[in-house]
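Worked example 3 (structure in, sequence out).
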């Protein structure tokens, strides 16, 4: 019955193997494994956390020090597993305090991580972590403890699961709602290859990720295929970031599913192993099922009734306390050793930020944190000297909504990251958090637009990729005036390739009938917000990067704005018209034009100054395209006709702005005579790994010195690249 258990439980098994479970005094604590915990565990248990502050973990980690791979856990008693969890939790806290990263979600799954690696035979039994921002304890237990100081740094550990990093990272992630599909595919492949049928594929998915429709597509298919997978539904009440933002649905977690599972939990106490042993009867051989059919019928009615998950074909077990190893371990062992292939869903309840009081008390449960002081929880960030682009967007949207009741904001579970939380505090009834459901968000916005509402659909650039068909089919073809706000455009820093907004210029720019703009600075962002607000005959998209804006001093220096303070309101710009921000000096033999789209404009101006400062015979014009669609063809033509070199610069992949410019130049015959040298500067054709944004743009070749070098090479002048002088940057969290 217990199959691959590492040690027998000292329980009286009578009448039948299953009925014997009912009379066991406590299966989670029975046996030699737990009756006499080793002295090292007893000694360590004396080092438990003080109430604090100051907060501190154990002075030593004797159990964790013995773990190099999950196989080292197999001989531990339950008492030792509990102590290991305590050490692992504080190891995670201390590691993230030095690098920044996703802390709260990792703290919430410490016991689950220990239990999974103890019970299952990883990596042979693949464990797939949805989103995978919760994998720090997993990384520590799978041979990467010594590399944790490099977490999310250039050349270091990824902040997410990454197949190239470890065989224990069965499936890479960063976006949500992929785990069940991946686990199912791996389970079916295992069967198709005719391999050992005892293998179990495990998907760990949270209550945020399970709001995405792909989870239900996968569950529907799993029951149909009858493949041996286990879905662990990690329910922590944190659907959005942060949960609790005022919105049209109130301040509760987004969606009916969260309310449904909350009712499941509230309607009865947590199920312990003896409860589960009764209900799990149906998964075992028929003779045992028949002997206990009446008991099982009673237990199932008590435990869950007819749940949504059972209707999808899963065998539902729960809810279970995800921090209680006494019950979690034997429940997982029995799920592992079940007969048959019916998919199982284990519903566990956990607390995000568990075990670290500052995280437990925070509204976002320390979901993503910069470096911090462990003793107090104080985040070690310098006060911002300039506003963030996100806050400029939020303030601009509030200004528009104050004057027009038809303005609404939509977010897909990212109110904090997009600034919609700020809007929600002012206009809760006009704020819509749809959960992690970008496809629905886009078509929901389309429906609002049909009825004359002005929706601003704020979704990270990388996440809008998930709703591409809706963008075309439901919005663009119907010419509906949905206003897409693409935060985190370009390179995003420490979250790495899964979160870069590299592709939106290419994937939106090829869609007919959509207007696409990118501000060069915070003043332009306000102006573009006003502009797209006034566009009512087509969809629009506005993209901008993460991080802080330039500030008044830089704006006045580089762009000669002459501002003493920021304008109170944005002003509408002409659609499809760019601007020249710096003219080339006269009486020169060579002329260069740099045409920038987005926030590389500042780097372009600095490059122009450096070129003219070093070469008296060269004049450099710098222009801000503002719009990719409609493209300012008159500006492009003028720059092509009046200059020897034309360089386009953008924070996007190949196929974007530069390609549109080159396409126009080619069709217009501007390249036919061979007198114009044109070059696009784009992100390289590779995935840029974690690091600071400055490091990443250096690697991409889009900083000032690379723009300068490109111009000089085209002029046939010597190039001295020099060295990069990157200022220290704070770690970035999506």
């Amino acid at each position: 019955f217990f199959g691959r258990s590492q040690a027998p439980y000292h329980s009286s098994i009578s009448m039948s193997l299953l009925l014997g479970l009912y009379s066991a005094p406590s299966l989670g604590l029975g046996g030699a494994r737990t009756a006499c915990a080793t002295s090292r565990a007893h000694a360590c248990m004396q080092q438990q956390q003080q109430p604090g502050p100051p907060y501190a973990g154990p002075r030593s980690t004797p159990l964790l020090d013995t773990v190099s791979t999950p196989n080292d856990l197999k001989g531990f008693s339950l008492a030792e597993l509990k102590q290991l969890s305590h050490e692992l939790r504080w190891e995670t806290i201390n590691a993230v305090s030095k690098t920044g990263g996703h802390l709260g979600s990792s703290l919430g799954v410490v016991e689950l991580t220990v239990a999974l690696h103890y019970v299952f035979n990883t990596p042979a039994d693949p464990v797939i972590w949805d989103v995978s921002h919760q994998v720090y304890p997993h990384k520590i237990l799978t041979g990467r403890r010594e590399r944790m100081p490099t977490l999310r740094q250039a050349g270091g550990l990824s902040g997410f699961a990454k197949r190239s990093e470890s065989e224990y990272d069965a499936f890479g992630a960063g976006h949500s709602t992929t785990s069940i599909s991946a686990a199912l595919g791996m389970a079916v492949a295992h069967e198709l290859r005719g391999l050992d049928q005892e293998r179990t594929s495990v998907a760990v998915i949270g209550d945020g990720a399970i709001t995405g429709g792909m989870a239900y597509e996968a569950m529907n298919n799993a029951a149909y295929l009858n493949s041996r997978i286990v879905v662990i539904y990690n329910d922590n009440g944190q659907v959005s970031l942060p949960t609790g933002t005022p919105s049209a649905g109130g301040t509760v977690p987004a969606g009916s599913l969260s309310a449904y599972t909350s009712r499941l939990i509230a309607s009865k106490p947590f199920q312990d192993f003896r409860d589960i042993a009764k209900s799990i009867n149906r998964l075992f051989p028929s003779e045992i099922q028949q002997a206990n059919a009446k008991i099982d019928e009673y237990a199932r009615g008590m435990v869950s009734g007819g749940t949504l998950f059972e209707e999808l074909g899963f065998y539902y077990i729960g809810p279970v306390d995800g921090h209680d190893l006494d019950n979690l371990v034997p429940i997982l062992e029995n799920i592992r050793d079940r007969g048959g292939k019916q998919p199982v869903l284990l519903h566990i309840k956990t607390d995000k930020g568990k075990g670290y009081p500052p995280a437990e008390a925070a509204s976002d449960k320390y979901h993503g944190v910069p470096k911090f002081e462990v003793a107090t929880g104080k985040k070690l960030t310098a006060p911002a000297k300039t506003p963030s682009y996100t806050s400029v967007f939020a303030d601009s949207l509030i200004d528009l909504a104050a004057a027009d009741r038809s303005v609404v904001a939509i977010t897909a579970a990212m109110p904090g990251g997009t600034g919609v939380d700020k809007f929600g505090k002012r206009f809760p009834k006009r704020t819509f958090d749809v959960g992690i459901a970008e496809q629905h968000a886009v078509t929901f916005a389309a429906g609002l637009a049909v009825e004359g509402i002005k929706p601003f659909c704020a979704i990270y650039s990388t996440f809008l990729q998930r709703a591409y068909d809706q963008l075309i089919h439901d919005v663009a073809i119907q010419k509906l005036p949905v206003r897409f706000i693409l935060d985190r455009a370009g390179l995003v820093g420490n979250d790495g390739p899964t979160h870069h907004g590299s592709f939106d210029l290419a994937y939106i720019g090829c869609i007919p009938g959509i207007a696409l703009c990118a501000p060069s600075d915070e003043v332009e962002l306000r102006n573009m917000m006003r502009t797209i607000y006034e566009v009512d005959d087509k969809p629009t998209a506005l993209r901008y990067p993460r991080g802080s804006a330039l500030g008044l001093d830089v704006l006045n220096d580089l762009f000669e704005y002459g501002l003493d303070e920021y304008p109170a309101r944005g002003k509408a710009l002409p659609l499809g018209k760019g601007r020249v921000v710096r003219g080339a000096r006269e009486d020169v033999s060579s002329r260069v034009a740099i045409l920038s789209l987005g926030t590389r404009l500042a780097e372009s101006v600095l490059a122009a100054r450096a070129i003219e400062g070093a070469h008296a015979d060269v004049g450099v014009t710098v222009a801000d395209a503002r719009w990719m669609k409609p493209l300012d063809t008159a500006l492009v033509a003028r720059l092509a006709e009046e200059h020897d070199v034309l360089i386009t610069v953008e924070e996007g992949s190949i196929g974007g702005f530069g390609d549109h410019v080159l396409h126009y130049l080619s069709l217009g015959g501007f390249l036919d005579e061979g007198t114009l040298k044109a070059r696009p500067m784009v992100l390289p054709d590779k995935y840029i790994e974690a690091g600071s944004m400055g490091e990443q743009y250096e690697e991409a070749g889009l900083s000032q010195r690379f723009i300068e070098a490109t111009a000089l090479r085209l002029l046939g002048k010597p190039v001295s690249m020099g060295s990069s002088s990157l200022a220290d940057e704070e770690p970035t969290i999506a």
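Notes: Residues 1-47, 287-306 have pLDDT under 50 and may be disordered. The first strand starts at residue 127 and ends at 129.
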